[in-house]
Amino acid sequence: MAVKTLKETLAAQIPRLRKERTKLLKEHGKKVISEVAVAQAFGGMRGVKGMVCDTSVVEPDKGLIIRGKPILKLKDKLPEEIFWLLVTGKLPTKNEVALFQKELRAHGKVPDYVWKVLKAMPKSSHPMAMLDTAILAMENESAFRKRYAEGMAKTDYWEPTLEDAMRVMGTIHTIAAGVYRIKYHRARLIKPSPKLDWAANYAKMLGLPPRAGATAKMMRLYLTLHSDHEGGNVSANTCHTVGSALSDAFYAVSAGLNGLAGPLHGLANQECLKWVLETMDKFGGAPSKAQIRDYAWETLNSGKVIPGYGHAVLRVTDPRFTAFLGFGKKYLAKEPVYQTVARVYDVVPGVLKEHGKAANPWPNVDAGSGCILYNFGLQEFEYYTVLFSVSRSMGMLSQLVLNRAMGTAITRPKSVSTAWMKKAVKAK
Ligand code: AMX
Fold this sequence. Notes:
Layout: H1 6-28, H2 38-42, E1 56-59, E2 63-66, E3 69-70, H3 71-74, H4 79-88, H5 94-106, H6 112-120, H7 127-137, H8 143-150, H9 158-185, H10 198-206, H11 214-225, H12 234-244, H13 249-260, H14 268-283, H15 289-301, H16 319-331, H17 336-355, H18 366-375, H19 384-406, H20 418-427
Antiparallel strand pairs: 1-2, 2-3
Helix pairs in contact: 4-19, 5-9, 6-7, 6-9, 7-9, 7-13, 8-9, 9-10, 9-19, 10-11, 11-16, 11-19, 12-13, 12-19, 13-19, 14-18, 15-17, 16-18
């Protein structure tokens, strides 16, 4: 039997998914699933259930679950398998992954004008600004834009969207590696190898020092763990909103990445390692638990947060942190930065509980990722969000493709004025 492509696999599912949605809407369309309090309207719509995302959910007591599978059960999968899972709901077979990798390679050429744009940017440009600009510049490649201009049935929108998604995914690791080389090394770009998988190629193109084959493993883990985090976070939600106007995948992903560049979202991860290194600086090496406790209190007493701890949704240790800690134990047990991160985990939740403010005293993914990257030779903190972006592009793209397939409507929530709000609360 011929191996099916990702497109064929999704195409076979779409009629059933559309029928399911139509039935749900027809039978239950008027039922209420969420209410909005005044504090939520002023507070980032936190917790308001107002959109649908089938790729993954984040459970407060379990963490990330991709298509029904807890992330810890997926940690040894290739990112390409995760993308397939996000789009189709099923893990691919070996042959399907191989075919998908071949297709990705066929979509992998970065146009010369993109490199020219990147090289023309000032040296002081943030690597996230460089990545976002490159993805936007590649809009020129959009199959969706061309097909839309020619005229296409609404039911076909998902096809060129998937084509664009393959183009973004096929090139984003090469572009991201190019950003790193241009920004920090002003050195020649390293070409991808047709023999390597997506993550291994990314590691190769960055030019990271080889660590007995572990660098590719580290990159696979990193790209798998950050791939998706349901639909309401800033980057996913932005990508969705922009895409809902039928802007193509290049516009939508670039917009989502602009959100990821914010200090409250993707940029947070560089803060975590900084705090760990500051602790080590202060105590001249891996500090003891007592020293970490003192420094944690010093941080809190000066009105700052302890980076890497707490979460808007999670109320347990982020399983992605657990995965990084396990990886570190295996490959970096003797490294002082790893030892410090592990000790911080022993101490900080207790300190935060005693402090009594944080709703969740446990570590999020950012508490663990930086120490791994640092020990594998990636020591330019500013760049960490770019790695996050390469991974998260999978979540954004898969959500975009599915929304096009389902014909999801343009996003248009109702805003109200403060004057309206004052009147409305008086009437309650
Ligand atoms: N250290 C100290 N205080 C903390 C804290 C921490 N790690 N986490 C939360 N708090 C404080 C909050 O600042 C808030 O104080 P306030 O009442 O004086 O404003 C109070 O506890 C209640 O906050 P919360 O409901 O527990 O958290 P939140 O949902 O408002 O915010 C988050 C979540 C992640 C922004 C917050 O926990 C934080 O700032 N953590 C440190 C930074 C960090 O790790 N960011 C990475 C987030 C993961 C990601 O998206 N990449």
